């Protein structure tokens, strides 16, 4: 059983992420707060599983004639079967798994572009963020 809810923060960034296994019942969602702005997405998420973990990427801003800003967070694999905690606030769901403390990274990418095409030279610019927080398993409806 894989964790599916993540609350992360660090370097002035907060990330709330929900990745349900059954996407016909619940939609994945992400909320990112950075630089005084809040970005939310449910449909524009990309999940890429790698040996390092799962990269979750979303478009947070499209600026005509400047480019697109993406935010990615690396989610480690966590086997949540080993820690089950009763949930007294929700008697219909007998347990939740976690929380598990995690440390990871977030990457903000500016993908440069313009109306006349990409500028010459470097096309992507990156800002990295050290993130830490918790991962839990939340039963689906």
Brief digest:
The chain has a single domain (5-137), classed as Lipocalin. It is 0% helix and 58% strand. It has strands at residues 5-10, 13-18, 29-34, 37-41, 45-50, 53-63, 67-75, 84-85, 96-112, 124-137.
Q: Would you give an account of this structure?
A:
The chain has strands at 5-10, 13-18, 29-34, 37-41, 45-50, 53-63, 67-75, 84-85, 96-112, 124-137. It has one domain (5-137): Lipocalin, CATH 2.40.128. Strands 1, 2, 3, 4, 5, 6, 7, 8, 9 and 10 form a ten-stranded antiparallel sheet that branches. The protein is elongated and about 55 Å long. It contains no helices and ten strands. The mean pLDDT is 85. The protein is mainly β. The chain starts with a strand and ends with a strand.
List keywords for this structure.
141 residues; mainly beta; Lipocalin; 0% helix
Strand content: over 45%
Class in CATH?
Mainly Beta
CATH topology: Lipocalin
Poorly predicted spans? none
Give the number of DSSP strands. 10
Number of domains: 1
Proper CATH architecture: Beta Barrel
The CA-CA distance between the termini, in Å, is: 16 Å
Order of helices and strands: EEEEEEEEEE
Largest sheet: 10 strands, antiparallel
- Going by helix content, strand content and strand pairing, the class is mainly beta
Dominant shape = elongated
Radius of gyration, whole Å: 17 Å
Helix content: under 10%
The overall average pLDDT, rounded, is 85
Number of helices: 0
């Amino acid at each position: 059983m894989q964790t599916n809810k993540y609350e992360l923060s660090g370097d002035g960034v907060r990330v709330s992420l929900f990745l349900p296994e059954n996407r016909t019942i619940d939609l994945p969602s992400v909320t990112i707060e950075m630089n005084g702005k809040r970005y939310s997405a449910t449909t524009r998420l990309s999940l890429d599983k790698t040996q390092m973990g799962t990269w979750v990427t979303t478009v947070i801003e499209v600026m005509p004639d400047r480019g697109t800003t993406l935010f990615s967070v690396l989610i480690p694999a966590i086997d949540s079967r080993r820690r089950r905690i009763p949930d007294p606030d929700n008697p219909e769901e007998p347990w939740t798994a976690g929380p598990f403390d995690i440390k990871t990274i977030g990457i903000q990418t500016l993908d440069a572009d313009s109306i006349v095409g990409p500028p010459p030279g470097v096309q992507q610019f990156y800002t990295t963020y050290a993130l830490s927080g918790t991962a839990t398993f939340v039963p689906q409806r």
